[in-house]
Amino acid sequence: MRQALIFYRPPGWNSSDIYLPKEVYSYLCFSKTNYMRKYLITGFFLLALLFQACDKNEESITEEYETVGLTTEINISDVDNAPYKEAISEVAFVARFHGFGGIGSPIDPLGNDTRIMLKVPFDENGTKLILPENPPQELMSNIASDIPSGFVISDTNAKTISFVEIATDMPDSTRVFGFLYMSYEAANIEYQLQYIYCDRAVTITGSGKDWWDHAMTYDLNLKKGWNMVVEKTIYEKDLQIRSTTHLMPVDMKWKRSRWIGGK
Question: What percent of the chain has pLDDT over 90?
Fold first, then answer.
């Protein structure tokens, strides 16, 4: 916590946010060199702006979290639809078969990687997805193929559905263009809520690399059923530092996005 300074607003200065320390203002007002006074005033105002920006960045990062776990439904409301003009008519909860490590769709001869688990009309006032209690076995993968190598999995025989999306207005049963997701962003940090189905209790822990070679830390305690997990990404220059836990910021919001060209 920085020690507070007593600031003074010069006459005619309209900002209610930035002030000069009173002693500094007095010195500047009685300085004999107008030329130097101008640059000193400018310097102090820039310094004040810097402190103000730092304070806003600090305040923008939430410090309140909740622990999430099993869920039987997804409730969608207050979607940020600002970049899009077209309305949403329906949403679908879809499972995907990823291609990491040579793993593709085991049930589609054409390699289509998307399967619709449920589809409902979209209501902007509130839409509820009741998640399937017992998803089809054909949608499940061995947990060891869904999690990158190098992490500690307590039961490698567990089956999971780890890649799911909430698609909007799918053009057909195999392609996703638009989707909804829940996230929170502040400064250089982003949180995103994800869903994993697991057929038994299992833990995933450790640090290593994710599928895209970014630094990743897992601290998950999955139960039988649909688990809510939160992926946190810290952006530092060209690096992305990620962690996946059950801690979710309380200020998460629903947002809308789109895959370019579909996927």
Answer: 51
Torsion of CA 37, 40, 44, 45, to 10 degrees: 60
Between these two residues, 207 and 4, which has the higher pLDDT value? 207
| Nearest C-alpha neighbor of 189 from the set 243, 231, 230, 233 | 233
How far is Cα 114 from Cα 196, in angstroms, rounded to an integer?
A: 16
Answer yes or no: are the C-beta atoms of 129 and 226 closer than 8 Å: no
Cβ atoms within 10 Å, residue 197: 23
pLDDT for 39 equals 53
CA proximity to 186, closest of 232, 239, 255: 232
Give pLDDT tens digits for 198-245.
Answer: 999 999 999 999 988 899 999 999 999 999 999 999 999 889 999 999
CA 115/CA 100 separation, integer angstroms: 18
Tell me which residue of 102, 79, 100, 248 sits closest to 179, measured CA to CA.
79
